[in-house]
User: Fold Ubiquitin-like domain-containing CTD phosphatase 1 from Sitophilus oryzae.
Amino acid sequence: MEGKLPLIIKWSGKEYEVYISEDDSVADLKREILYKTAVRPERQKLLNIKMKGKGSDEECKISSLKLKPNFKIMMMGSLEQDIVEANTAPSNLPEVVNDFDIEDEAVAIENQEVYLAKVSRRVKEYEVKILNELRPGKKLLVLDIDYTLFDHRTTAQSGAELMRPYLHEFLTSAYEDYDIVIWSATNMKWIIEKMKLLGVDKHPDYKIAFYLDSLAMISVHTPKYGVIDVKPLGVIWGKYEQYSTKNTIMFDDIRRNFIMNPKNGLRIRPFREAHLNRYKDDELLRLSKYLKDLAEHCADFSSVNHRHWEKYKPKKRRHSKDSRDNKDRDRTDRIDKAES
Assistant:
C-alpha cells in the first residue's frame, strides 16, 4: 500500500502482514493487528520494539520506532475464546500430555554412530555466543524455557505473571554452583526476547553463560515414535571439556528432549495455567535444594536416577583419617586452653 510501512507480525507460529503510516501510533498498529489476528489490543504484547517518547506506549508514534520495511514484530497474546477455555476445567485429559516414556528408545539411540556423527557436526558448525565467562570448577545446568521457566500460552500479559514462581531465587541459588545455559527448541530471537521479558538477561544476582536454539538440536528416528528433534548435551561437552556426564544436568518439561542423554535429564513438571497456579507452584524452590545437594555430595550426576529427585538423600562424605586426627587435635587444644 502506497505511503504505508509494511510490517510482519509473528504470532502463534504464523506471520501476518500489516500496513501502517509513520504518523500513526502504536494504538493504531494494535488495531491493525486486531483485524489480522483477532487478538484484542489490550491483550497484545509486542516483544521486540522499544517505545520512545512521553505518554503511554499506545501514544508512541510509529516514526519514533525507526522500523524498517517488513520488520518482524514478535507478539504474545491470547484470543478471547482461548481465555475462556483456559479458565474452564478440562475433562478426560490423559495423565501425561505432549510426552512419552523414552527409556527403551534411549537405549537404542544414545550411542548410535549416525547420531553421534550428527552431534560431532553440531560441535564443529554451531556457533555459540558466550554471554558471560565460563567459570572453572562449576557444574552445568541446562534449562528449557517454555513450560519450564514460564507459561508461554497463558492469559497473563506481563513477564511477572508469565514467570514461574521463585524463578529468580532459583537461578540465584543455582548460580553459586553451576554455570547456567538456556536451550530452547525455538529460534534465537525468541530466546533473547523471552529472557528480556522475564528479566533473566541482566539480573544482578546471576549470569547466563550462553543460549542454544533449535539449530543446535538434531533429529533422531525412534522405532516407536518416528522422527523427533532432541537436545544432545554432547554438543556442549564437545565444545567445552570442563563439562561432562559427571557434572551436567538438564531440566526440561518434555522427556524426549534428552533422549540422547537420559541419565543427565530431569523432567520438570510443566508450568501451565499461570493465572491459576502462580501461587501454589513451588517446583523451582524444591529443585534448588536438589541442585545444591548434587553439587555438594554427588561426584557423578549420571549415577543418580533423577526421576526420583524428590526422594534423593545425599550420602555424607566420609572424613579421611587425617581429617579426623586434625579434629581430635583441635579439640585437645581447645580443652588445654580452657584448663589453662
The chain has two domains: 5-77, 103-311. DSSP finds twelve helices and eleven strands in the chain.
